[in-house]
Design goal:
The chain has 533 residues and is an alpha+beta fold. It has three domains: 215 residues, no CATH class; 88 residues, 2-Layer Sandwich (Phosphorylase Kinase, domain 1), CATH 3.30.200.20; 223 residues, Transferase(Phosphotransferase) domain 1 (Transferase(Phosphotransferase), domain 1). The chain contains 17 helices and twelve strands. The protein has a seven-stranded mixed sheet, sandwiched between helices. It has a three-stranded antiparallel sheet with strand order 8-10-11. Strands 9-12 form a two-stranded antiparallel ribbon. Strand 2 and strand 3 form a beta hairpin. The longest helix is centred in the middle third of the chain and has 35 residues. Its EC number is 2.7.11.1.
């Protein structure tokens, strides 16, 4: 499954070649969206400036922008066209590619309108001061606002620049003004020729940066679409497969993140690769699925996982409060299913916490739980202490869910360490509170190592079956020998509980319909990011 990928479109793929053909008007999707947003702001700016100029011309004839007939025939319609473009771009009434196409027509129309207004002003009789004609400034704006291939920029900018002398000729033929001298026209229009060359150069630079950005987002068969955030060792992105209509999440770590760990033998890289390999080897439906992993040409490690629609258990309790005991049992048994397989493969998760247990819609199933982030996984041999790839003498994990043996370091870490953390999760689900509250992480881990927890039934504010109350406390025993000895044993004890009510598919459907009726992919991505950080 591991592979080395090279960033950039496949040269053998005609679709990839066509995509970046210089004649192609298309931008990468995210840059296209950004261009549409800029088009809307540009149109709004034109509306404000144009309306202000029109009002000033009406109120103060000495400052008028050309003769009144020209203002009503040309200037006012251009302001109205700008308003229409603003509405279309702001409300996305057309697809982004079509809005970008419209903007180039708007570029030429705007140049013509500006040319009519400026050429209708009296030309100075003597030598003119050096400067940029308004049409030239208008043309120079566009490559920055709307990146485009050089050929398209050359074509549209040429038409826009030619609109200036063309409108002058129309005004002369219509009797609005006399033809200026040849020297005056050269001084007036020559800067526009320079602006044309600059616009093509700027377009090539800006559009080229977009190409490089898009190429850098190609990872194997996947294209990074949207950055969901960064945390811990790397970043998480929403991604799409080039050929399959399958959404995915990509976790990647950049080479610069390894610099601080050079002295420890590249532990961060080893940890990242181990996380992908360990998780990909697991087949429980309650373990996050890994589609692919590898190394990019720039040295970045990445792996591709399923993109889930739901929320983690931390968000669940914050959103909906403490959960019914029957639902807690239902969720814990699913976590046990994932951990049982991992423990049989001598993998210890070591960071079980609500943010790493993800509740989602999964196909037709509701309340389906996935265990995320085996990034701190400890690989151990049978009857041997687990090996770790963390910094020397470092305590790894989350303080609020850390087993005493991790804090003290006096016992080997095995599957019972995850059982303790799962007991902390059960406590959180039943009470909406942590097992221990403390001002600092150090105080919290010391409480886990030394203090006996208060029974969840005394903090829940609602009835908790005594057997479930006792089972949670068993999971929280300081001595691993007194806890359930395996995830399977814990699951069996949970299944044997006699509860006053059950959590059925009907209950789950009603909850999802009332609390989370729509897709939670954005929240899912946030929670996945937090979990994977």
């Amino acid at each position: 499954m591991s592979e080395t990928v090279f960033l950039g479109p496949d040269a053998s793929n005609p679709c990839a070649r066509a995509r970046w053909d210089w004649l192609s008007p298309r931008l990468p999707p995210d840059l296209e969206q950004e261009a549409v947003r800029r088009i809307a702001w540009m149109a709004l700016f034109t509306i404000v400036v144009g309306a202000a100029g029109f009002i000033v011309s009406e109120l103060f004839p000495g400052l008028a922008l050309g003769p009144r007939p020209i203002r009503f025939a040309v200037f006012l319609p251009f302001v109205l066209v700008s308003a229409a473009l603003f509405v279309v771009a702001r409300r996305r009434l057309l697809s982004p590619p079509r809005i970008v196409d419209l903007s180039f027509a708007y570029k030429i129309l705007g140049a013509a309108s500006i040319a009519v207004i400026t050429n209708a002003q009296p030309w100075p009789e003597g030598p003119m001061l050096p400067g940029w004609p308004p049409v030239a400034v208008w043309v120079l704006m566009f490559p920055i606002i709307i990146p485009a291939p050089s050929v398209r920029t050359l074509f549209t900018s040429t038409l826009a620049i030619l609109a200036d002398p063309a409108c002058l000729w129309v005004l002369v033929r219509s009797g609005f003004m006399e033809m200026p001298s040849r020297e005056a026209m050269v001084r007036r229009f020559f800067p526009s020729v320079i602006a044309l060359a600059l616009s093509v150069f700027v377009s090539r630079v800006v559009f080229g940066l977009g190409r490089k950005l898009d190429a850098a987002r190609e990872l194997g068969s996947y294209r990074l679409v949207e950055r969901l955030g960064g945390g811990g060792m790397g970043e998480v992105w929403r991604a799409k497969h080039r050929m399959l209509a399958r959404p995915a999440a990509v976790k990647l770590i950049r080479p610069e993140a390894f610099q601080g760990e050079a002295a420890s033998g590249g532990n961060a890289k080893a940890r990242f690769e181990r996380e992908a390999q360990a998780t990909a080897a697991l087949r429980s439906p309650h373990t996050i699925g890994i589609f692919d992993f590898g190394v990019a040409r720039d040295g970045s490690f990445y792996y591709v996982m399923e993109l889930l629609d739901g929320m983690d258990l931390d968000t669940l309790v914050k959103l909906d409060g403490p959960q019914p005991p029957a639902r807690v049992v239902h969720l814990l048994r699913q976590a046990c299913h994932s951990l049982h397989e991992a423990h049989r493969a001598f993998l210890v998760h070591r960071d079980i916490k609500p943010a790493n247990l993800f509740l989602c819609r999964y196909g037709a199933d509701l309340d389906f739980l996935k265990v995320l982030d085996f990034g701190l996984v400890a690989v151990r041999k049978k009857d041997a202490a687990p090996s770790t790839l963390t910094a020397d003498n470092a305590i790894t994990g989350t303080p609020a869910f850390m087993a005493p043996e991790v804090v003290v370091g006096d016992r080997p870490i095995d599957g019972r360490t995850d059982i303790y953390a799962l007991g902390c999760v059960a406590y959180w689900l039943l009470t909406g509170a942590l097992v221990f509250e403390a001002e600092t992480a150090m105080k919290m881990v010391l409480l886990h190592a030394t203090e006996a927890p208060v029974a969840p039934s005394k903090r829940a504010g609602r009835p908790i079956p005594p057997a479930l109350d006792r089972l949670v406390l068993d999971c929280l025993e300081k001595d691993p020998a007194k806890r359930p000895q395996s995830a399977r044993e814990l699951s069996e004890r949970l299944a044997a509980l006699r509860l006053d009510a059950e959590w059925t598919e009907q209950h789950a459907a009603a909850w999802w319909e009332s609390v989370a009726p729509q897709s939670l992919s954005g929240r899912a991505a946030k929670a996945t990011l937090d979990a994977l950080g």
